[in-house]
Amino acid sequence: MLLMAIDGGKSKTYCIIFNERGDVLASSLGGPSGLLVYADVAEENIFSVMRRALLKANVDIKDLDLIVISLADLDTDKDWEMARRIVSSLNIPKNVRVILEHDAVAAYYAVTFGEPGVAVIAGTGSIAFGINKHGERARVGGWGWLFNDEGSAFWIAKEALSLASKAVDGRGKQTKLVSAIMEYFNIKKFIDIIDVIHKEFITEHERIAKLAKVVDMVANEGDEVATEILVRAGIELAKMAQAVAKKLKMVDDEIIVGGIGGVFSSDIVRRTFMKKAKELFRRAHIKEPLIGYQPLVGPVVLALKECGFDNVESVVKRISKELAELSSRS
Amino acid sequence: MLLMAIDGGKSKTYCIIFNERGDVLASSLGGPSGLLVYADVAEENIFSVMRRALLKANVDIKDLDLIVISLADLDTDKDWEMARRIVSSLNIPKNVRVILEHDAVAAYYAVTFGEPGVAVIAGTGSIAFGINKHGERARVGGWGWLFNDEGSAFWIAKEALSLASKAVDGRGKQTKLVSAIMEYFNIKKFIDIIDVIHKEFITEHERIAKLAKVVDMVANEGDEVATEILVRAGIELAKMAQAVAKKLKMVDDEIIVGGIGGVFSSDIVRRTFMKKAKELFRRAHIKEPLIGYQPLVGPVVLALKECGFDNVESVVKRISKELAELSSRS
Which helix (H) or strand (E) holds A258? Predict the structure, then answer.
């Protein structure tokens, strides 16, 4: 059987072709296709990762058995309409089934394999999603990048900009973030950040969100302000998981809780999240966060479950290992 | 003498023609010309308010003695270049002098008439500016709408969106802001706010910022969450004034401190600001905030000072009275 999994995020789109034994035939990576980008951008990026993966694997699209696409920001009725329009414009042969899913739901499957639990995604944005033993679903967060996005890369960037500018204002702690931000945005005076952010970068959220990596670097050099931002991110992400579990009345149950997404590649965020989650959930199994290509695990699990395989976990382990190697190379 | 004052803000542009006795010959109002809008938008809006005021007053532009233009977001070298290009494209006859100034500096003159003190502007954005007895200048805030903009209308809107969405998430206090926001944006499900904000409204900051008025209405109906946002806004604005005074080493001096801008039309913000400012400044004269057409007082004072008049304060009082009447009618 030939399966394709695609994860369309706010910053990147990942794609792999694999089989039911866990062999990865090909992978590819492209620009964003989360539904806050324009429809034609999402379409182009999905089309492009599919084409490159098919070429690399030397597979004809009509030989695929199933394509699972998980997308960020697939929230409203309008979003679903837009996603279906995008899929229908990809010219996928009718014999190939396509499943569309919200990336938070896919993330939940990546973390729990369908057992009761909660997944927290922290990439450019942040969202938590869970399902309890009765099959009831709940989500928290995922409101975009302007508000209520604590713990996301974009939020980390906004906090860094806010605290650095307060230091420049003379009403905040001094921090190396000031010079690091000037270097990142290639500006000579800090005040130029106003133009850079509001005029040049505001349509490129990805580039602002990437500032989160700079915050992590500065924190690792011992900067208190930067460290504090990342600690707060880790705590907020654990609290989001708790809020979902509360809604589903399973905070004190033996559930699975885990994180997924690029923000967890920060040691400080990951360690804080694990510690706080262990405090908030007394009986849950707190899994190590998944990063790099790992967001693909969600649509991979969905695809294997859809095809009715039992040994999903062991197959996914093989694929995860290959994905981890891909991540370390990218 | 015939003078023209123009205040170009993030949401509106005000214009009046007046004389040295304080007679207002004409006034006009148009769209934004603060420098975070596109240059041609700012140019068109300034040109349009000038033309209408001249027509109403039946005055030929060449008969003006001086034009003072205060602009929001006139921060960086690039902004000044842009502002000068805009002015030169307005085809103002060479015999008419034009003075350009940052709106925070103009606001300072509106509040203090040039005496040592601090003005806090809270419109769509927020900024504080002051000058001490040695003529030293300092500013705090004014970083745009993405970060470090506490107390501004846009910040109030973001806080309202954040706390309403947290209530919907089931992890925040219940608040009437949820239904008020749905009504304001004309949506049937709260989750649709994601599309509305990030796709339709994000280029129209003014419309998001206007949500601050809804927050004030909801607070006046007794909603705790909305009230708390406005109280925090008032406190933050007073703290910005304090930060400026600290930088200028005049916190404990007999200085003048006052607010200016639309956010102060909220009773809760105004009262909180006055109370907090009285706490933070033991010997300062805390003036009642200026609202409505009052931002024009800044360029008016600058114009009168520039022409060398002594009785600036009494002339401005006459003009302010007329402006207050205009505000109550608009």
Answer: strand A256-260
